[in-house]
Write a structure and sequence with these properties.
11 helices, binds pyridoxal-5'-phosphate, single chain, globular, 4-stranded parallel beta sheet, 6-stranded mixed beta sheet, alpha/beta, Rossmann fold, 2 domains
């Protein structure tokens, strides 16, 4: 984050068709570090084999990108491998972040892998398993009343007194590298679909790093000269109980407003005031996408149906995305011929 203006910082590269010809990817490591020319480091200093997750085909027009198969069971691993590698390269000795769940587990694991100490703050109603997971990897965990926003505030006020005064702050979009890791989802789609990006990408949105990252990647792939017959329309999915991006989108606003009393069991979506909300809105509008809030009551059944129909370990956030696909197909926004990629962003096991 820029300390003068408070806005997120973006990493850019000088890209030409010679930077990363698609053919040069053949035979490279099967992790997101295969895209090293468009990452801030030439190699993952702290890597657990993240990325290159399966793209599972459901029917002729529908694919699930299964992010549950990342280390620590969610796509938070993508952001953390890049952020923690950079933090270490920049000389950090410790790391901290607030989290609604999966980011904390991933941070704890990558901190352990990189031999950096980790402090995380989480809402005190976060399921116990997320807390246990962090401690399993040796992190310090603090439970704070309220939401992830309150957890972030607590870290800023108390981190120093716990010896984390110089810690690298890995909070969503406070540093520019988690987006760099998450954008690789779009590069993988390009490779896995052999250049035919889908018409629609449906993405459950919390802080929005994935949405913003993929949007950034579309622009980069174009600069790299990769074939791009269409830019996918980005669909941001939230829960009715916490829908700052959807509300702002529907209202035609350019920024999100803090969502009061956020409530959803899809913990990854419980981000009431995303600092990159304005970027999510730009990404959605520029790609002619949309934003949808699904009923809390439809999330668990959608996840259960998808899991039992496919064998994929679907999390509530993935269930929300699936519920949105059904709604958008029913309303005709997704046309019968449209090819759709739906993100299952994490494992369902941690939510029981
Ligand atoms: C963090 C998280 C999200 C939201 O991701 P953003 O990129 O921050 O919007 C969605 N699903 C799961 C499982 C998550 O852990």
């Amino acid at each position: 984050m820029c300390t003068a203006c408070g806005l997120p910082i973006r990493v850019d590269y000088a890209l030409t068709p010679d930077t990363l010809p698609r053919a040069s990817l053949r035979g490279r490591i099967a992790s997101l570090w295969r895209y090293r020319e468009v990452l801030p480091l030439a190699a993952g200093e702290v890597s657990l084999g993240e990325g290159m997750t399966p793209l599972l085909q459901l029917d002729e027009r529908t694919w699930i990108k299964d992010e549950a198969q990342n280390p620590t069971g969610s796509f938070k691993a993508r952001g953390m491998t890049v952020a923690v590698s950079m933090a270490r390269a920049l000389g950090a000795k410790s790391l901290m972040a607030p989290s609604a769940g999966n980011a904390a587990g991933a941070l704890a694991a990558y901190g352990a892998a990189g031999k950096l100490s980790v402090l995380v703050a989480m809402p005190d109603d976060t399921p116990r398993i997320f807390v246990d997971e962090c401690r399993h990897y040796g992190a310090d965990v603090k439970l704070v009343p309220g939401t992830i926003a309150d957890a972030g505030k607590w870290l800023r006020e108390h981190g120093a007194s716990l010896g984390f005064g110089d810690a690298f702050d890995v909070s969503t979009l406070k540093e520019p590298y988690r987006v760099e890791g998450k954008k690789t989802m779009a590069y993988e789609l390009h490779e896995q679909l052999d250049g035919e990006l889908p018409d629609v990408i449906v993405y459950p949105t919390g802080g929005g790093t994935g949405l913003v990252g993929m949007w950034k990647a579309f622009g980069e792939m174009r600069a790299l000269g990769w074939p791009m017959p269409r830019v996918p329309r980005l669909v941001s999915v939230q829960a009715v109980g916490c829908q700052p991006v959807v509300k702002a989108f529907v209202a035609g606003a350019t920024k999100t407003e803090a969502f009061v009393n956020p409530m959803t069991r899809a913990w990854g979506l419980r981000v009431p005031s995303p600092i990159g909300g304005f970027l999510c809105l730009r990404a959605i509008r520029e790609t002619h996408g949309t934003a949808v809030a699904v009923d809390e009551a439809s999330i668990a059944p959608a996840a259960a149906w998808l899991a039992s129909a496919t064998g994929i370990d679907v999390c509530p956030e993935g269930g929300a995305a699936w519920a949105a696909v059904e709604e958008l197909r029913a309303s005709g926004w997704i046309t019968p011929d449209a090819r759709v990629v739906v993100f299952n962003t994490g494992t369902g096991i941690k939510y029981r």
